[in-house]
Sequence to fold (83 residues):
Amino acid sequence: MKIGKELEKILSRTYSPDSNIERRMGRYDIAVKTDNQGRPILLFIGQKTAQGRIKGERFSRRLIADDSGNVIKDHWDNQGGVS
Fold:
């Protein structure tokens, strides 16, 4: 699975620092964890189970910034399936 344009819009926003955000996008459930600056760094996408866990794919964000805080590299890596 690749990250599409609609999901990219959700992931480009800034949220509350160090939080977990859960929402629904189309037929998928999404869970996002943010860093201390509120940027999404971990994404779970798939179907939510009865226990509240998401069964599907996991993505992690590679975010590299220079000393002044300018983003040099911003890339999402597929880490495989989760159950």
